[in-house]
Amino acid sequence: MLSRQVAAKLGTYETPFYLYDMELLRRTLENVTSVASNYGYRIHYAIKANFDARLLEIIREYGLGIDCASGNEIRCAIEAGFDPKSIVYAGVGKRDKELRYAIEQGIMAINCESTEELHVVDALAREAGKVVDVALRINPDIDPKTNHCIDTGQADSKFGISYEEILAGVEDIRSLRNLNVVGMHLHIGSQIRELHVFENMCNKVNAIVDNLTSLGFDLRFVDVGGGLGINYDLPENEPIPNFASLFAIVNSHLNVGSREVHFEFGRSIVGECGELITRVLFNKTTATGRKLVIVDASMTELIRPALYGSYHNIENITSASDQREKYTIVGTACESTDVFDENVSLPLTRRGDLLTIKSAGAYGMSMASRYNLHDLPGAVYSDRL
Ligand code: LLP
Fold it and tell me: By residue range, what is the domain housing residue 193?
């Protein structure tokens, strides 16, 4: 863990801030791209996980494409130098303005999530005098065995088109003259640690691709989304997620002929390379005896614990005490759910100590808010320390 090694250098930065391990990011990208190349898989980075410009610069160096969820994400990716032809755009509710921008930029594919959206994209493409490449984002109805807050591919979810809707609208979809249906897309959920779930996903994809083909769609690519989980409990044991096992599973179960296979990873690329560094403001004990450590970060810098009850491993990186205590770590926001964790065993922790909240590189900074008019947190990069 980087923060402990460089703790002596961190004292002068204004807290809270995100600390990024650029070397670990490079090693992660090296790993995912080299294993993917064994199978010819193409990797996109889900920019929603973290749109930090320096991280994007490195991610681009390794040749990844981008997966976007909004027009502003597409703009951010293009400004960071990514080729529009490597950008896919999914999202259950795309505004006309965003669709027009995506069409104008000529991105790789707009992943459409309803038949109504297909009609709107067709009309906007006609207005622009273009024929646009789209993928059908299918709802595969798979339980990804993850936190319910972040599953996306079950039958009742808002994401994707149900297979029944495609069947009912097939003639209609094929009649849309300004669309080329070139791909099939799905994303079953995030933080998936039980890899056998991806076997089920492959079996579903095989059947869906066969059916779409027999309905007359000529698919060039299959995009199976992201979702590979990271080790929040013991990040030091697994700093680089297990891309090799995931790809081996997909290779032995996916059966889509010579079609391109794309992935869209967010958390597994940047999750472990970021830590949130925060300073202890106060200690106090509640009337019930709970020892609170009040830190200068809050749910406005890292909302995952408050929003999903997510666990992040926390350490004190400056205390030299041998004595340990159990603390509840709370933030500064005016919300009772602004708790990072309870019963955290730390060495004696006092005002001024620095704590690290680990595995915060994904969905940390990108979900930060200015509630209570907090300033947005800064970023410190290991190669500039
Ligand atoms: N593709 C699509 C269409 C997605 O919706 C997502 C994430 C990804 C790819 C990337 O998934 P990943 O590889 O990161 O699992 N804020 C939540 C996670 C929300 C994920 C949203 N979609 C969290 O902090 O856990």
Answer: 22-271
